[in-house]
Fold these 2 entries.
Entry 1:
Amino acid sequence: MREIAASTISDHVAEMCEEANIYLGEEEFQALKDALETEESPTGREVLKQLIENVEIARNEQIPICQDTGFAVFFVEWGQELHLTGGTLEEAINAGVRRGYDEGYLRKSIVDDPLYDRKNTGDNTPAVIYTDIVPGDKVKIAFAPKGGGSENMSTVKMLKPSDGEDGLVDFVVNHVKAAGPNPCPPIVVGVGIGGTFDKVAVQAKKALFRPVGTPHADSRFAALEKKILNKINDLGVGPQGFGGRTFALAVHIETYPSHIASMAAAVNINCHACRHLERTL
């Protein structure tokens, strides 16, 4: 049985919080540059140039890409042969978030009471943590700072199995159309299909952790991703809502087995700064 200290988890989480907010991933950055090459609208191209420049400034000046440094969201795969010492996993992750957001001078955006007092916790905790137990003696930590503007454009709908592919496509495209410029396009669209009301929402968020533009392993769903992406970009909303072809950079679908009576569907949107980072320890 391999052991790992809670403090080691905290150290890595703190680093990840700072790094993800400052450095946009290479796949995501390349997607913006590719969009600049194909965008037909002069205004859209100008907006994309500014977004690309913003990413470069963040890297060079060591400052956050966006002032909204997000809700700290983690997907953790914990090897069943790995033993954590010196604290719990939740404590270790929250300690890392607390330190990373403080040392990185990142905005703290979390309030403890969602309805009444809405007092800021002052350290961007608690994090949102999803954990899976997997074979092996390693831990994989995936982190994303999820901004409020794009998160607000999320939705879940309990479709009927008879709605089929057409119903699913209409649901996603119509929802993204209604979101319009609010989630700061060009966006990445995470789509969950199947599972329960809660599970499908998690699948939609998990879809945003894939490198931008990476197709689904199942060719049927890969084709569906492309179909939905084309329909979204045909809407003409464009970068930041100023018109053009680049409303979305990618559509990612994640699925889960479904009950015979239902076909749950969810949409979780990320802005152009689709920040996420992954480490295996």
Entry 2:
Amino acid sequence: MLIGVSIIVFALIQFVPGDPVRLALGTRFSQETYDALLERSGLDQPVLQQYFTWSGRALTGDLGVSFRSGEPVTALILERLPATLTLALAAILVALLIAVPLGTLSALRPRSLVDRGATVLSQIGISVPDFWMGIVFILVFAGTLGWLPSGGYVPLTEDPWGWLQRLIMPAIVTGVVSGSVITRFVRSSVLEALGQDHVRTAQAKGLPARQVLSWHVLRNALLPLVTVTGVQLAYLLSGVVVVEIVFAWPGLGQLALQAVQARDYPVLQGAVLLFALVFLLVNLVVDLLYSRLDPRIARR
């Protein structure tokens, strides 16, 4: 899969208009400097040779050098990775805190006021653009109330309180969007589990409702929940570009966008390759969790 992604990304980048070397030089342009940078970047070689050179180095962790800054791409990605990990994990935590209780209550009381309210809220969370929600949060909590900073990022090791203050708004905005998606899956999974024979048998035996819910319903509803949570987490780990731009969050999504704008091919290729790797690893972890959650899968 990674090989396929690398080929597609490398091929598509060749069709992007503009000369990346000329853009990187800017006002420093001279023919001698241009030729030297073109040779150093390997863009003077045939396209097929460029791909094999780049992919061979990528296997060793060398993703090339940025045209814009001259820094190694691997170092740039590792520099942005903590911010992306922080936002992704905080956002998925917010999403689960919203989705699991709301989706479960909605399934336990179908067509009730709670169910209709959860449906409306999840639809709003999916439909409202995250950049608009982020701007509203900034206007209210940073501008009007002055409770939180409007954006930026501070490492946890330098200033824990500042780190938390700057994390709250982007985590909530991103978590609300992901939580709205997960809420629907939780509701449908719990409804399906409630209709199973073993659940009705447990209820007929007179087991307490809390025990039936925790041991027979939620455990069987975990598999779809793990699947959709894994997909959402992989998406968040790949960088939420719009949210990162709104809150000036220096994550991988912002790095990829800057690479597109500057025609910084090595950075863009490295970022996309990392995003594909993240999706593959998260899907692998989800598959491994299946056998832990459902022993029947392990026996197969």
